[in-house]
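Researcher: Let's do a round of design. I'm pasting the structure tokens now; please hold your answer until I've finished.
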């Protein structure tokens, strides 16, 4: 008896690629490694402990939620691990062990899974988790530890470069120290060189394009250069670009597939919006850093950006557009009738 086979025909384009969600997430994890290594050198082993706790918490919460709701297990796509690493990177190096557990629950269960899981969440889970922690534990989330190479004893009163900029004065931390990470800050944001290396890897692997990171960073650079609050335009601009979570947010969070525009023009608009809101919060907000909130606000506008920047399909006129002579011809036909 001849074997019958079921043929499945789908619409074009027909694309075959070995890369899937797991492969993309693995590339992101590889790109995040330099920042973690730098943090270990600068702050000791505690950043690694926080990262491990955050990752394990995210994986456990995702597994338990999917199990409880009788949905397919999605832990294998590595997205929960990426969320855990990114969440840990936004925590101060002085954070207690239980803080990433609470942040992971909010990021995975509330922001990601309750909206349907990966691809259906409209906010970046890691950033939403950080925003929740800042609102709930402001004192802990703003307590900084100096890097091992700095002679600062009191972590609680240590002022990061961004805190100085928020007060309208240039930071005493040099540009070289900011590039190498020899300053206080969150786990994964201090070493600019490590973040740039990770970003370059993602661009080479074609995981991300340069549209969002460049438009984001250049907007902050241009605005802070034109409207400085210090007496040195160039130094003020460089310190704003290299301090805080700008590079981490622009490279690894604003480029999240689920919560960023898909159109090239829309990605540029999105990046510019993130940059403008970041500067506005840094200049006029009560909290020194604006990257997280800027990205979350722009996440909410992605549907509108995509809708208004969608390319015109060949042979299909825009809504309400009358083709030449079509309106006149229709009127003549109606008159004859």
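Researcher: That's everything. Go ahead.
Model: Designed sequence:
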């Amino acid at each position: 008896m001849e074997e019958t086979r079921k043929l499945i025909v789908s619409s074009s384009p027909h694309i075959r690629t070995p890369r899937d969600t797991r492969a993309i997430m693995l590339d992101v994890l590889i790109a995040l490694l330099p920042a973690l290594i730098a943090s270990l050198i600068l702050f000791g082993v505690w950043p690694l402990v926080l990262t491990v706790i955050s990752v394990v918490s995210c994986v456990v919460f995702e597994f338990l939620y999917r199990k409880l709701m009788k949905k397919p297990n999605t832990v294998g796509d590595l997205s929960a691990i990426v969320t855990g690493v990114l969440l840990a990177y936004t925590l101060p190096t002085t954070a207690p062990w239980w803080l990433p557990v609470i942040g992971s629950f909010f990021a995975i269960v509330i922001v990601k899974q309750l909206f349907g899981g990966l691809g259906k969440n409209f906010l970046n889970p890691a950033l939403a988790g950080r925003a929740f922690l800042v609102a709930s534990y402001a004192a802990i989330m703003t307590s900084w530890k100096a890097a091992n190479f700095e002679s600062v004893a009191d972590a609680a009163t240590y002022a990061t470069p961004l805190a100085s900029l928020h007060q309208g004065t240039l930071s005493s931390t040099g540009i070289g120290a900011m590039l190498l990470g020899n300053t206080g800050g969150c786990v994964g944001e201090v070493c600019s060189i490590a973040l740039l290396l990770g970003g370059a890897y993602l661009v080479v692997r074609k995981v991300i394009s340069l549209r969002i990171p460049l438009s984001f960073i250049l907007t902050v650079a241009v605005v802070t250069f034109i409207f400085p609050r210090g007496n040195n335009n160039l130094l003020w601009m460089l310190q704003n670009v290299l301090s805080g979570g700008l590079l981490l947010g622009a490279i690894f969070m604003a480029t999240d597939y689920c919560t960023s525009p898909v159109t090239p023009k829309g990605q540029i608009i999105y990046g510019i919006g993130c940059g403008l809101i970041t500067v506005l919060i840094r200049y006029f907000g009560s909290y020194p850093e604006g990257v997280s909130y800027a990205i979350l606000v722009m996440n909410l506008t992605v549907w509108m950006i995509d809708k208004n920047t969608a390319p015109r399909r060949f042979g299909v006129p825009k809504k309400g557009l009358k083709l030449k002579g079509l309106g006149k011809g229709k009127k003549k036909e109606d008159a004859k009738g």
